[in-house]
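seq:
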Amino acid sequence: MNMVDKKEDSKSQIYTFYDISGDKATRKKRDCPRCGKGVFMAEHKDRNTCGKCGFTEFKQKSK
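struct:
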């Protein structure tokens, strides 16, 4: 794999993090409280994690 192929594979798909209805866009994922706006947190089964700074919030278990 050369650099051109790698560059094409790593294109950002930030548009998948938003729901667009009419003229409004709403976020699907949370922003990181440490990094601020524009840095989204990954959603795992039991936690939310920031890929940039490593901040982690564990989800509450429902009974």
